[in-house]
Amino acid sequence: MVLLLTMCAGMFLVQLDVTVVNVALPTIGHELGAGVATLQEVVDGYAVVLAALLLAGGALGDVLGHRRIVVTGFATFGLASAGCALAPSGPVLVGFRALQGLGAALLLPGTLAVITSAYPARREQARALGVWAGVSALALAGGPVLGGALVAAAGWRILFWLNVPLVALAIAGSLRLLEPGGGIRRRIDFAGAASAAVTLAALVFAVIEGSIVAGVVAVAAGAVFVAVERRAADPMLPRELLRSRQFVGANLVAGAMNFVGLGMILVLTLYLQGVLGYPPLAAAVRLLPGFLPLSLLAPVTGRLVGRFGPRPPMIAGLVLGTLALLTLLRAQTGYALVLPAWLGLGIGMGLLTAAVVAAAVAHVPPGRAGVASGVNNTARQAFGALGVAVFGHYGTSVAGLHTAGILGAAVWAAAVAITGCAVR
């Protein structure tokens, strides 16, 4: 249990730093004299580097040993957090945020790979993944509220100083609990890792910034990655994973989950603040009814997956979320319009999150746990960024909210079909 909680601490820090900074951006801009473009880079620098290097981070863990990579990730994340807290200017803060993304990309797939290796039996693994998913949801939920409270009490730098002692404890726990030693003996696919990183970075940047040039770079780098992997004797992304219908299907559903989930969080935040006029902290508090079941149900879902397999909770969560999103089509306004939809979506994601991760990593060879975890996290990060970009246009009016509900319901309905066909 201590090992599980230590690995969950890594997940918590990574997810928390995705959302906790957003509420502090106006204060950061005022104190550092940073413009809107620099503030966007404070968020995007972390997100782009994290998404770009997740796959490479997982593959490195498989080859070099997850203990070594997890500890390196924790250390990098902690040092970068201290640098963020001490940053004297906007550009320096952006640079340390990118370094935080590097540490997170090393850390995140390794924590999931360690958990799947430590709990090989299906029931125990599913329960552990439920706890892991619950901690992830708790960080996502707590980020805006915690960030708002801390900034109001002690300023924005405390958001980064908070990471430093937590990272020190996590490093000590990892060194004590994880077995030393290397991974599977094989060559590191540097060409595959580099081309994958460029592809993912360009793709996420294109989505966030709407850059056509970045989109072209992503397509070209993706073609290079495919060519490199076909010729590689020991490719970073093994062909047996891509031939697995369940692995591919589960990761598509994971992407659909974050596409709609993160997109709708942004839509509801914009609606509560821009249309209903709530201040940021008050809006974050009104989102708690959806975040709480997402956090609380994940461990319960882990137990359900251990007993019944991942498909029943996945289908139940997707169907419930689809029906909840359709309630946004009601002809009314105000908080009463969004509350039932957000509550149902939170319950649906609570049933879905642990199950979809369990489905993605099930039956993966032990020597590929890291890269499998990297693929799953990459799918969620990349599709989540795409969802934020697409859904961001719909939160400024009631009509836009209706459109977002239809789009989200359609995507999750398609995910139901994928689950039925691909997941055992």
Number of strands: 0
Elements, N to C (H/E)? HHHHHHHHHHHHHHHHHH
Query: How would you sum up the global shape?
Result: globular
Strand content: under 5%
What's the Cα radius of gyration?
Answer: 20 Å
What is the subunit organization of this protein?
single chain
The average pLDDT is 83
Query: Major beta sheet, specifics?
Result: none
State the low-pLDDT regions, or none: none
Structural class: mainly alpha
Distance between the termini: 28 Å
State the helix count: 18
What helical percentage do the residues reach? Answer: over 70%
List keywords for this structure.
424 residues, mainly alpha, 18 helices, 83% helix
Describe the structure.
By secondary structure, the chain is mostly helical. Helices cover 83% and strands 0% of the residues. The chain has 18 helices and no strands. The chain has helices at residues 2-19, 25-32, 36-64, 66-86, 90-118, 122-154, 158-161, 163-177, 190-209, 212-231, 239-242, 245-275, 280-286, 288-308, 311-326, 335-361, 369-391, 398-422. Helix 12 packs antiparallel against helix 16 and helix 14 (288-308) packs parallel to helix 16. The longest helix has 33 residues, at 122-154. The protein is globular. The two termini are 28 Å apart. The model has no long low-confidence stretch (mean pLDDT 83).
